[in-house]
């Protein structure tokens, strides 16, 4: 019996059931992944016992001999993986990381320009329900009718509103961003360029997506999506902004860093620098393209007509099913994803017309082209039979049989 099992069987059992769920399901939520056992071990380590407000060599508490080394290694590895000049690994997650950037450079009421939430931007890029939209004058740019970024429209908006920060980055955009264009626009209006690469950071690390680093003043990212690390975040920036960013993270936004997360970020970055990670990210992109092909052949309407990264957005308006109905039916069939607004959606955000899916997690468990064909066919059957619980149960069994052949990282003990 483990200590947890003995002391708190209720929580132990729920974690165990979640392990089984993560093994048994085809997880397509575009922001999720499976971390390695090594990353899990660091996350769950005794480093959680330590307090270390400050930065390596400049702490407010003693006993930092080892923590300083861990944080310095994480920083050095991030610099090496991304070619960043300065790195802060302390943000608790992606949202506070973005807030810290605003705190570093903005005063309340200053203008930011980012991608509209219903068009694929993130809440923290200026949505009115987020601090980013309440405390700042947040202006947003939209996609064109085909769901593609229109750089002329971004330029016009920027010229009009003169943002202090221009934000590039998204949570649901299946295309590669033109960082050089964003830079040009930022320069024209005298804005800082912030790239939030949370979704595609792993692809940048693996060299299968253009890097924002030659262009951006500041790059933020979560560490737990395509980068396959623990839940956390990093802010990377040009050396000239190092002081402002570090001050904004601590003491501006946060107290003590989560040292166990810092260690796990270091472990994930070591993994991200390997050839096997490069292969993994190439497979993520290949899998997305293969799955997109199968779905298009089945008559699914992919926003922008396909994908260039790990994710795709599907407008289900032509399928007589809402995004929520599809997501619920797919979940019942063992395929887990989220409903999502599509650009110019006529439906409400809580009950939108589309679904979003990504290939990071399934690629981590070894799915490749053959499985994409099987998966695309299963998704088509679910959507065509979403009210038939017998069909959904039958597909759930097929999903489980497929998953049993592909033990996920960290969950090998669950595989039969
Ligand atoms: N930025 C982008 C582009 C995201 O997609 C997300 C999360 O989905 C975040 C920031 C926020 O990250 P977190 O949920 O860790 O706060």
What is the count of structural domains? 2
User: Largest sheet at a glance?
Assistant: 7 strands, mixed
> What's the mean pLDDT score?
97
Helix content: 40-55%
Contiguous low-pLDDT stretches (5 residues minimum) are: none
Which molecules other than protein and nucleic acid are bound? pyridoxal-5'-phosphate
Could you tell me the CATH topology label of the largest domain. Aspartate Aminotransferase, domain 2
Distance between the termini: 20 Å
Gyration radius, in Å = 22 Å
CATH class of the largest domain equals Alpha Beta
Instruction: Please give the count of helices.
Output: 16
CATH architecture of the largest domain, by name, is 3-Layer(aba) Sandwich
Per DSSP E runs of 2 or more residues, the count of β-strands stands at 15
Q: Judging from the principal axes of the Cα atoms, what is the shape?
A: globular
